[in-house]
Specification:
- By secondary structure, this protein is of the alpha/beta class.
- The chain has eight helices and ten strands.
- The strands form two sheets. It has a six-stranded mixed sheet. It has a four-stranded antiparallel sheet with strand order 2-1-4-5, with helices on one face.
- A hairpin with a 2-residue loop joins strand 9 and strand 10.
- Bound molecules: adenosine-5'-diphosphate and magnesium ion.
Length: about 240
């Protein structure tokens, strides 16, 4: 059993002048390799703060965070940025594609920071474009694609560096429900292939696609739901 994420008593305090806001008030949980988690909770409960920490965009005020066994809670900015580039993949609500680049070029972006040769990067990007069903549209720019297609480019980009963890922030938030279902089906497929995923959502039906749902309240974990077990527990009528 390998833990990809190990959080121990993570606290995050934001200081604004004389004011202190405890956005995370001691969060402890572990994500095992290959698991699919969702994070839910009302606005202000600490979801974004937690995702920023998981994504090594910020450090905890106190507590431990190990990502793939690495102590990332105490790393400097330079090392954190290297961890983001080599160990993490990000999928955002607003896709965050570069408008001037075509599908293949967008998928390649994370590889530029790693000294991967242009030829190898192109091969990898093409392989992933096909995997997400965009093998015929590799030279399209984002504005020529539907929202669902843009999110598939973003998913391919998130996978291009073979990350140990994919983080998704409201990945279906900008999509109609049918397209959202397609994107969730794709995340399921990645999970079936062994990808470890943590996704923030405020929609219960989206959250239930994950194996486990971490419910946040006031910077704390209110509960951890096992979506697979609770489905089995439904009584037969
Ligand atoms: P959520 O994503 O669940 O809505 P957040 O993590 O964004 O919650 O916020 C948790 C708490 O921390 C809120 O009270 C919010 O106002 C506060 N907060 C978040 N980011 C900052 C920041 N950069 N500076 C000050 N307070 C912040
Ligand atoms: Mg938020």
């Amino acid at each position: 059993m390998t833990n990809i994420v190990e959080l121990v008593d993570v606290v995050k305090v934001y200081r604004m002048g004389d004011n202190e806001v405890e956005a995370l008030a001691g969060v402890t949980f572990e994500v095992e390799k290959g698991e699919f988690w969702s994070i839910m909770g009302p606005s202000g409960s600490g979801k974004s703060t937690l995702l920023n920490l998981l994504g090594c965009l910020d450090r905890p005020t106190s507590g431990e965070y190990r990502l793939g066994g690495k102590d990332v809670a105490h790393m400097n900015d330079h090392d954190l940025s290297a961890v983001r580039g080599t160990m993490l993949g990000f999928v955002f609500q607003s896709f965050n594609l570069i408008q001037q680049l075509n599908v293949l070029e967008n998928i390649e972006v994370p590889l530029f920071y790693q000294g991967v040769s242009p030829k190898a990067a192109r091969e990898k990007a093409l392989q992933l474009a096909r995997k997400v069903g965009l093998g015929e549209r590799t030279d399209h720019r984002p504005f020529q694609l539907s929202g669902g297609q843009q999110q598939r480019v973003a998913i391919a980009r998130a996978l291009v560096n073979d990350p140990v963890l994919v983080l998704a922030d409201e990945p279906t938030g900008n999509l109609d429900s049918r397209t959202g279902e397609e994107i969730m089906a794709m995340l399921h497929e990645l999970h079936d292939q062994g990808t470890t995923i943590v996704m923030v959502t405020h929609e219960d039906d989206v959250a239930q696609h994950a194996q486990k749902t971490l419910v946040m309240r006031d910077g704390r974990i209110l509960e951890i739901r096992d979506n697979e077990t609770s489905a089995e527990e439904v009584p037969l009528s």
